[in-house]
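Weekly puzzle thread! Below is a chain. First person to post its structure in token form gets bragging rights.
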Amino acid sequence: MTQGHGANSQISVLREKFLSRPLPELPGVRDIISASWRRALEHRVDTDQPDPVFVADPDGESLLVRSAKPVLDNLASELGDPPVAILLTDSDGLVVSRTTVDRSLDSGLDRILLAPGYSYAESSIGTNGIGTTLECQQPVLVSGFEHFNSGLAQFECAGAPIHHPVRGHLVGVLDLTSWSGTPGPLLLTLARRTAKQIEEAMLAGVGARELALLREYLAACQRGSGAILAVNEDVVMVNNQAQELYDVADRSALITHSGDVAGSSKPVTVLADLPSGMVARLEYRPVYSGSTLAGGLFRVKNQAASRRTATQPELSLPGVVGGSPGWRQTCAAAEASFTAGSWLVLTGERGTGKTALATAVARHHAPSGTLLVRDCEGVDDYEEWAAALDEEVAGGHSPAVILRHADTLGTEGMRRLTDLFTMWQGAPPAHAPVWVAVTLSDVRRDPDAAGWLMPFFAHTVEVPPLRHRIEDVRRLVPHLLARHAKSRDLEPSDACLRQLMRLPWPGNIRQLDRMLAEVSRRHRSGKIEVADLPAECRTVMRRQLTQLESIERDAIVRSLAANDGNKERAAADLGMSRATIYRKIRAFGIVPGP
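Winning reply:
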């Protein structure tokens, strides 16, 4: 039901109470709203001033926009004069069109930047009819102070998701926004009806190109076994054999190579070096719809093992788990630092396991040796701290030293630390560490920390955030549960694991570990089901990426890394527009490196 003035005032009080002390459960606030508020806190969204992300050139020629235009024109005609804004967004919450005839409402929306080119995703705005609909994958009404940002409290917003009528994935949101106090249920019903009409219009407008490519892909899959890809600028199709034969990193490489030739009008054969060490042969055949090129069909065969990459057994380090390609590469790079006798810098977001990885490497190579792990955060007397550390090293029989949060030391602390490093590097082996590793946050308190440290360190390794190795959740959850449950028989159900893999985990492994510790305190044994998870994990309905979306996400991550974080060059390498790569970076939660 629509909130009256009293109900809105009550929600305002509850919102202020939540902001002062976030609670897992909040009586009087709908679960879908309180869960969204918690996500907004995790994203550090401003509580008072809307600050949406701006993209200068939103895609105005997509199938969604073309199909929606006549539907929205008709709706605007039917509505007439009431102060209701009709907004259409893409799957990232980016507003692509806005229609309203009420000047006052138009000005109000301009003040909060709810306008074409701006993204109203939850990650930048918090709870709202657009972003929360995207997160929950269902129609959502957000009224007054249910908005996380108080700047939106004067509005009533009803959002309904729009799905692709053939492939089924979310393509956008139809949002109706008016002043607070407008009958919300009526807005929500109208938003639902209009979203369905847009889906029907999209079904009628699905082009012959896509259908022609789909027919050729299905025919190729039926004619023989082996890996098959079908690609054009809008669609990537990968058969089951390709998913079974190649891991995510290899499929990402295959997609990238296929994009280089998919626009060719003649058959082409290319060889692709894959991250696994294999060389794949891609046999390309163009597919036409009449005289129009509809895309390309690829048959993929393994040519040989790459000469540049020798097959290595999977490295097992004590105390850490993971099997994703990115995690394996990170572990191998850290391990190579120790074997080469080189000191190591580990960078990355907080909670990714930088200290755990350094500890695992030290334990793996010197299981009986002394290990000194010290936290640099909160040190007050730098001279005393450095002297105590030097004394421990001198009496520790060549220990391994791991220094956490080294970027928090400040100028004076860095000066003491680098003096210590200089002395260690000139000392006899018996009076120096066998190995030194330091960890730095991705957001450094001292931007000059790297300049102080780099002369002493030959290797820098970035530890990936959990969202970039989400498949490792299947290994991490049992591993972390074993720590908390000890000898108890406690394990997650398959549905529970799938739900955990849908979450963005902004706090990384540390956040996952805290959540599992809470669950293990409440449950002594048996299966952990979705209903047993904390409220924020149960109510978040963010869908798990499909295999194709995972491939696309990883291709973008790899291209950004190869181009030193430059989005324009990465987009060019992937054959995307600048607007597209910006939208996909937000949608996939990609954090480009510095």
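Puzzle host: Confirmed. Bonus trivia for everyone else. The chain is about 45% helix and 20% strand.
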